[in-house]
Amino acid sequence: MSGTYLGMPAFPRAARAAVADTQLRRNLEHATGTIRGRRAEVVAELDDWAELRAAGAAIKDHTLRHLDRYLVQLEEAITAAGGTVHWARDAAEANRIITDLVRETGETEVVKVKSMATQEIGLNDALAEAGIMAWETDLAELIVQLDRDRPSHILVPAIHRNRAEIREIFRRAMADVPADLSDDATALAEAARRHLRRKFLAARVAVSGVNFAVAETGTLVVLESEGNGRMCLTMPDTLISVVGIEKLVPTWADLEVFLQLLPRSSTAERMNPYTSTWTGVHPGDGPQALHVVLVDNGRTGVLADRVGRQALRCIRCSACLNVCPVYERVGGHAYGSVYPGPIGAILTPQLRGTAGPLEASLPYASTLCGACYEVCPVAIDIPEVLVHLRAKAVDAKRRRVLPTAERAAMAAAAWTLGGPRRLGMAQRAAARARRLVGRLRWPLTGWAESRDVPTPAPESFRAWWRRTRGRTE
Amino acid sequence: MRIGLFITCFNDTLFPRTGKAVTALLERLGHTVVFPAEQTCCGQMHLNTGYQREAIPLVRRFARAFADLDAIVTPSASCAGTVRDHHARVAESAGDDRLATEVADIAPRVYELTEFLVDVLGVTDVGAAFPHRVTYHPTCHSLRALRLGDRPLRLLREVRGIELVDLPHADECCGFGGTFAMKNPDVSVAMGTDKLRHVLSTRAEVLCAADNSCLMHLGGLLSRLRAGTRVMHLAEILAAEEKAMSPARPHHRAPGARRTEHV
């Protein structure tokens, strides 16, 4: 259902197939272009955006610095309000806890609120193995689930599909779909609405993620557009909320900053239609059992990295995906993770390590153009982290006796650039071989396949200067 | 004012005529330009690819080569950005306090060419003439690292005879990205093609920018396509005069195309 990312090829290979998918290219160009423009408009409305952004970053940094204290405070507040807190070191432990909690209720179906944390841990597959069916209720997440596909965007998991494709998916996989379903947006939404309504009315257990967890009060917060989340959060008897430990904010007042930053950055709305908050359990009102599963799954490792830890500020708005020129042409699947785009390129290698070819290739899946950093509502300097991860990868390989081809080339370049005499010699050699350089394929294959190779000048600038002006400096 | 030209290793080797243009331009404006011969490279390629250690001697060399100059001018937004934004961190990571001091002292004196012309010399009309249809691509480092804003356009608008046309979606990356162009060639070319779609829609004869690296990528695509549009560093446009109006030859030569020497 949510798919597995094991054995994914390195980014460049997956990207080669993706850029050749013409339908995908047009779908993404349209979707990201539209939301990019809208976001710019609503952000421009606030003259204190820079201050809000700085405040968002500062609150997150402060919370992460004192995460030990705030996590315990959150646990105490939730427990005092009648909820139960569970701690999960990794995905396997989180899935085990959640599976056991559902089993205890005796139910074999759960409804889900759109949640990145549960996608990250592969909860749907784990539940399916235990004979429990998890129904996604977010419209885009439902489309992906019905198609047995993978999400390709943080906010809009089915962004790679257009309406005609969604109609086909519904007709193929939705049990109770009208025979004459059109690809009109209202008709598609209505079909999904009727389909989901039956799930909401029957569900006894819901699983959610959270956007924020307030340590001071033990309050959990979900922002959404559709209202389907609100159904899941209020109608069932049991609610299981899965919370990545970086989701904390210290106080209720801190929400003021994030409730401005997130909707404008994410859906390009001044305020999202539904904001649900819940604190423990209340007799006769909403779920009577609340379980909160706090998930680490690699986050404390990220927290230990002085440069890389800023990735934990992320509030999953997806603004960086929407402005990323690489994402726009490749889509989310090539990133091999539920976290695609620029944030995925820095989060996935940090959370999973860089042993796999995909994870190792992600820090290079960027031109460092800086558009992501510019729009990030919590000022994550993504290019800085990308370069940091590249340096870590290079340093990890320095112990090897045989250098990689890249390291050998970089060492040769560093030697050549070590002084004007060496550089001058190399330039003269290149000038002599210039006719050859223009025809070079290897090692310039990647370049020369589609682009002409520049020819070294017959006389370098420094040689020209010396010839015409002598050595003045 | 002692103005030092930071040519950059890339322009030095591949695009010396950009350096000649900067020299000619500044001299035409009545300034003396010096070329510190000890300079080689700012270390950008090493730093962006993760070879921090290899970049340390390059940063040290840069600091020493340009130490006694009042202004250091470069025809590259990305190299100016590397010196201003990254050299301090290299010095810190090297644990070299003396280098850190030198780097902090030099960084504010490093200017990309259009910054130097507009902010320091206070000129926008540099006396250039270039009667061609031109569009300007703000490279990512011009736009988001140095925040050059409209400085290049203010300079270009004053050029005699120029027909300057706006580039649609100008703020999008061209797909060069240094080693990205080699490590992810498919995405790089896809981005370059989309950029060219906008460039060609302007019907400009010349595409100019403040970085020859991005222009090498786009120019390589344009010449492969025989598109009839060429690339040119904006310094070469600003240096152009009425008397020398013949267009420069293309940067790229198509395989099999007839070869003509250019000096």
Automatic annotation (TrEMBL), chain A:
Entry's Gene Ontology molecular function annotations: 4 iron, 4 sulfur cluster binding
Cross-referenced InterPro entries: 4Fe4S_Fe-S-bd, FTHF_cligase-like_sf, Helical_ferredxn, LUD_dom, LutB/LldF, LutB_C, NagB/RpiA_transferase-like
Gene3D superfamilies membership: Alpha-helical ferredoxin, NagB/RpiA/CoA transferase-like
4Fe-4S ferredoxin-type domain segment(s): 305-326
Keyword annotations: 4Fe-4S, Electron transport, Iron, Iron-sulfur, Metal-binding, Repeat, Transport
One GO-annotated biological process of the protein: lactate metabolic process
UniProt name for this protein: Iron-sulfur cluster-binding protein
Source organism superkingdom: Bacteria
Coiled coil region boundaries: none
TrEMBL record, chain B:
GO cellular component: cytosol
Protein origin, superkingdom: Bacteria
Name this protein carries in UniProt: Fe-S oxidoreductase
Transmembrane segments: none
Cysteine-rich domain: residues covered: 4-83, 134-218
Region of interest (Disordered), ranges: 244-263
GO terms for MF: oxidoreductase activity
Pfam families the UniProt entry points to: CCG
InterPro entries: Cys_rich_dom
